[in-house]
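Hey everyone, long-time lurker, first post.

I ran two proteins through the pipeline my lab uses and got sequence/structure pairs for each. Pasting them in order. The first:
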Amino acid sequence: ADAILREEFDVAGLNETVMPIRYNDMLLGYIMFGKYRLLGEDIDIGKYAESLGVDKDKLGRACEELSVLTPEQVEAASELLRACIIQFCVTDVIFSKESERAEEIKKYIDNNLTTVSIEIVCRRFLISRRQLYNIFISAFGVTVKRYILEKKMEEAKHLLLTTTLTVTEIADSVGFADYNNFIQRFRQMVGITPAAYRNATFKNE
C-alpha cells in the first residue's frame, strides 16, 4: 500500500513502520509502531553484538522475544489503525458541525421569537423534526420546543417589567396568538399570571 513506509533500523534487524494518515487529501498525522522482526529475516546477531559492544546471547534472546510479522500483517495492522483514527476524526468533525448548526439554530430562534416555530426552523435549516430534536438535545440538553417556550417567557417577563404594553400586546409580541394559552403557559413556568408578576415586582420595588 502507498501508505506504508517501512524503515529498517541498524540495530539487530529491528523494524518500525511509519504510516501517514490521510483523509480527503488532508494529512492528519502519522502512525508509528514497532519494533518487530519480519518473517524470514536473516539477522547476524554476532555482527550487531560486536558493533554495539553488548553480550551476543542477551541480544539474541531479546530479538527472539520480538513479534515476528509478515509484510502482509504489517500492512493489515497499519490499515486497521488508519481506519480507527479516521473514524475518530470523522466523528469529531461531525460533532463539530452539529454543534455549529445547533448554535446557528439557537441564534435564529433568539432573533425570531415572534414568528418562530418548529416547522419554520425545520424549513429554514432543511432538517426533519427528529434531526432538530437530536441536535438540540445533544448541544443544549433541552428540547427545542422547551427552549423556544423558555425564551418567549423570558422575553415576556422583560417586557412586563420594562414597558407599559398590555398583557395582550406582550403575548402577541412573543408569538402567542392565543391570549389564554399565553396566560396558561406563563403561569405554568413562572407560577403566577403575567399581571401578578408585573404587580408583585413593582410592589417589591
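...and the second, right after it:
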Amino acid sequence: MATNANIGILVPGAFAGNPPTLDEYSQFFRSTEELGFHSLWVIDRVFHGINIIDPLLLLTCAATVTSRVRLGTAVYLFVLRNPVLAAKTIATLDYLSAGRVTLGISLGGRDNEFEPLGVSMKRRVSRFEEGLALMRQLFTEKDVTFHGRHFNVDNVNVDPKPVQKPSLPIIMGGSADAALKRSAELGDGWVAGGTSSPELFGEAWQKVRGYAQAAGKNPDSLESAKLIYVNVGDDRQKCKEELEAFTHPYYGPQYDVENFCAFGSAADCAAKIQPYIDAGAKTMMLGPAWPDVAQITRIAKEVLPLLK
C-alpha cells in the first residue's frame, strides 16, 4: 500500500434492512486480509431502531477466519458495560486472536441506553474512568483488589490475560475537549468518528498531542484514527445515494454525506481521504455500505495507490 498511514476497513454493522449473513461476513473478512488491509473495525450500539450487530461477536467471527489483520472497536460503549465482564471478553478475544485487538472505547451512548442498563448519566464520567482503571489492572495484574465509588473486587483474576504486553492498546473516541484530554492522559490514542472535516480533525489531534505533552507523555507514541465512509463507483450520484441509504438510518437524515464521505471515482475518493492523513491520521478506517468484496477490492487496487 502506497500510503504511510495504516488503512483499515470499518465493518458494516448497522442495517435498516436484513443484515448480512455469516457467510457474507466471513468472505469479507478473509478478503480484507488477503487484500493487505491493516485492520478491521466495528461500531457499537445497544439500542437503536435498526439492526446493529454486536461488535465483539463480530470481531470474534473475524478472528476465526483471519490470522494477521488487526481487530478494533471504533468505538465500544464501555461505560454501559460492567468492566470486569468486558475485561474477560476482550482479554479472551486478544488471546484467541494471538494479540490482535485494539480496544477503542468511549463514554458515549444515546440517552435511552443508560438507565435501562443501570448507568447514571450524571456519574458516567467517574464510572468510565474508574472502570478503565479496574480493567487495566485486570489485564496486567494478578489477585486484583480494587475499591472504588462504583466497583469493588477483592483478590480476583481475569485469565487468560491479553497476549499483548504490557497490555493491549486502548484508544478513545469523542470530540469534546474533556474527551480529547482523557484520550491523551488515560488512553493510548484517539479515534474520530465520521462527522468531522479534515480541519476540525487536525485541530482536535493537535489538542490531544498538547494534552499528552502536558501529562509527560510522548505525543508521537499515541494512535490517531479517523473513520470515513467510502463508496467507489463509476456513477458518482448513485454512490452518494447508496451511502445516504446506509448512513441516514443510523445517524439520521441530517448526516451530510456530501461533506463527510468519500464517493465516486477512485480519484474523488482519494481526494477526500488524503487531507485527513495530512492532518495527522495514522490509521484511516474506510467504511463501505455493505460487506462487499468487490468494493474493498476497488478500494485496495484503485484508491490506495493514489494516497501518500
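Reply from user beta_strand_b:
Welcome! Quick read of the second one: The radius of gyration is 19 Å. Residues 124-140 form the longest helix (17 residues).
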